[in-house]
Design brief:
Elements: H1 3-16, H2 25-51, H3 56-62
Length: about 70
């Protein structure tokens, strides 16, 4: 990830959060958790669109799956 993509992800997340501002420490903690999940979802969606694969962790560890692996 680069800074430009991080800014894009954050802007998309803020749009999905309707620019809500947490008013408590608990609210901030929950917002941070939602951002983490949103960012991870973004990364997986980008990975799928680029590779057509949904198993990112396996792909990064072992490389692309073969047709035999998909059975």
């Amino acid at each position: 990830m680069n800074d430009e993509e991080d800014k894009l992800i954050y802007s998309a997340w803020r749009d999905s959060e309707s620019y809500a501002v947490p008013m408590t420490e608990e609210g901030q903690r929950l917002a941070d958790q939602r951002f983490y999940g949103f960012r991870l979802g973004w990364i997986y969606a980008k990975f799928h669109s680029e590779t057509g694969d949904i198993y990112r962790k396996d792909y990064l560890e072992y490389g692309p799956r073969t047709e035999d692996d998909q059975e």
